[in-house]
Amino acid sequence: MVCAIYPGSFDPVTNGHLDIIDRASKVFDHLIVAVLENPRKIPTFSMEEKVQMLNKIVSKYNNVEVDSYKGLLIDYAKQRGARIIIKGLRAISDFEFEFQMALTNRQLNCEVETMFMMTNNMYSFISSGIVKEIAGYGGEIKALVPPQVYDMIIAKFKAKPGQT
Ligand code: PNS
Questions:
Q1: Mapping DSSP to helix (H, G, I), strand (E, B) and coil, where does residue 88 land?
Q2: Can 132 be counted among the known catalytic residues?
């Protein structure tokens, strides 16, 4: 059984993330969508809110689970017995940092392989940051996020207008 981890900050989950989840779920026997902390980003949603949103969108897949972890991705992979990390690549701009992370993770544990999936070109412009910027100014995000999480995102920005 091949188990893969799709890690991210998912702050919030977008249609781009969902596209990767959908495609990876068809390739691997088991997919763990793992919410981790990105120390370079200040989160808008709590870990619990992100897990809740992801659970809403993965409920239709019987080989996908959602989890969260505070610590190094490579430690989490070892804990879960997963040897594959899946990452989505949107553009050349993603590449440099993803390359650095993949090589660092390999240095930490050479038994865990990072594999990249190219984004669907329909979603290559979407990022959580763009979603938050639009929602923060009261703009329409319906085309950017899964319908199951739309209300939660809008509610967050109604509670904290102007926040991105
Ligand atoms: O969605 P993001 O913000 O691009 O995801 C980045 C994430 C959360 C996968 C990355 O920051 C991460 O792996 N965080 C856990 C801490 C860790 O392992 N850092 C070392 C990576 S080289």
A1: strand
A2: no
Query: Phi, psi at residue 78, to the nearest 5°?
Result: -65, -45
**Cβ contacts of residue 62 below 8 Å, gap of 6+?**
none
Q: Do 112 and 106 meet the contact criterion of CB atoms below 8 Å apart?
A: yes
Indicate if 30 belongs to the active site: no
User: Hey, which of 54, 73, 89 would you mutate to test ligand 1's pocket, going by the most ligand atoms within 8 Å of its Cβ?
Assistant: 73
Q: What is 3-122's CATH number?
A: 3.40.50.620
Per-residue model confidence as pLDDT tens digits over 54-91 = 999 999 999 999 999 999 999 999 999 999 999 999 98
In three-state secondary structure terms, 64 is: strand
Note the pTM of the prediction, 2 decimals: 0.96
The one catalytic residue in 9, 50, 128, 156 is 128
* pLDDT tens digits along 32-57: 999 999 999 999 999 999 999 999 99
